[in-house]
Design goal:
Layout (H helix, E strand, L loop, with lengths): L14 E4 L2 E2 L10 E9 L2 E9 L1 H10 L4 E7 L4 E2 L9 E2 L19
Antiparallel strand pairs: 1-2, 1-5, 3-4, 3-5, 6-7
């Protein structure tokens, strides 16, 4: 659950995991491509990037411990960069412009 007073909104399709169960298995997309998703694991938010079919990616989000998860995007625009020494960026190596991105910063109290 979000911290008191926090506002959380994420738009994505399809929902991958709902109430601790994979729900994206009915989405017919068996292509193994780069995929990105966001999920909730208790009071933590999890971002994941990997190569998988839609159903496999949903199952991986569940294995990470997500009780809720949604798909963000995939293909050539998928990239995860972490500003932490020794943590490599992962994702598509396709060099192209993307119209939007998602950034996360730790809370000031962290």
């Amino acid at each position: 659950a979000p911290a008191p007073g926090a506002m959380v909104a994420v738009q994505g399709y399809p929902t991958l995991v709902r109430a601790g169960r994979v729900v994206a298995s009915s989405v017919v997309n068996k292509t193994n491509v780069w995929r990105a998703g966001v999920g909730a694991m208790g009071d933590e938010i999890v971002f994941a990037v990997g190569i998988a079919s839609m159903a496999e990616f949903a199952a991986k989000m569940l294995l990470l411990g997500c009780t809720e998860a949604t798909y963000l995007d995939g293909g050539g625009s998928t990239r995860l960069a972490v500003r932490e020494k020794g943590v490599p960026s992962v994702g598509s190596t396709e060099n192209r412009r993307v119209p939007s991105w998602l950034t996360c910063e730790p809370s000031r109290g962290a």
